[in-house]
Amino acid sequence: AERTTALEASLRAAREEIKELRARSAAMTPATVLAKNRERAARLEARLEAEEAKSAGLRRHLEKAERELARYEHEAAKGDYNPATTKVLHLKMNPAARARAQRTQDAAARELAALREENEQLKKELQQQKANTSSDGNTSIMHHSNELNSSRLEGSSGVDSSKLNQRLKEMFKEQIARFREAVYLLFGYKLDMGGAHARPKLRLRSMFAENESDDLLFQWGKGGLELCETDFATKIDRKVFVYLHQCNSVPAFLSNVTLNLFEAQTFQG
């Protein structure tokens, strides 16, 4: 910028000198003086043109430098840097990353503790439900018996027996479906019963099962329920079978299977 200012001052001085020479040449009549002044004026004009060209080049260079400076300032404001002149250090133990990882671990630990507490509560409820099964079953049987007696009374009063039988079938079907849905929602297992009447088989499929074919099969034996071999049963952790073989508790075994499947879906899905 200082050099440009100096050039402009030099140009102004040259212009003033040309004006002065032209004024002098106009006042002087001798041809030799006039020719000499014209020659000098031509040299000055050539010098002036050269200086103007040089000044224009300097202006272009200055404008280019200003544009590059503005671009560098813009990139610096965005956080860009030149890898050749700037080195970025990455912390091996980044405090922010460690804090995020710790928060994730704490949240997982809290959720796992809550699930274990819920599992214990489910075990207690399952034991209580098992204790109340006989009394509830008797109540349900008495309820259906009363409905059946009422239906018989209606039949003796002239009501169509076929319609009564159809109604009874629908009532039993609805009651069984409602009971199966309650078992599924409360304990997480879809229950299907089949096989011989003396030794029926119970097929259970968890709501957290990964595949449709992942099921457990129990058969009614003399000593209670016996676990039959299935593809899914062979994949269960051997530690879970402690509840079944050593503790002789089917509810505890099923609860742990449910918890393991739930954890697999929650923390790995």
UniProtKB/TrEMBL annotation:
GO terms for biological process: attachment of mitotic spindle microtubules to kinetochore; cell division; mitotic spindle assembly checkpoint signaling. InterPro entries: Mad1. The keyword Nucleus applies. Keywords: Cell cycle, Cell division, Mitosis, Nucleus. Residues 131-160 have a biased composition (Polar residues). Residues 121-160 are annotated as: Disordered. It is found in: Nucleus. GO terms for cellular component: kinetochore; mitotic spindle; nuclear envelope. The keyword Hydrolase does not apply. Belongs to the MAD1 family. This is Spindle assembly checkpoint component MAD1. The lineage of its organism: Eukaryota, Sar, Stramenopiles, Ochrophyta, Raphidophyceae.
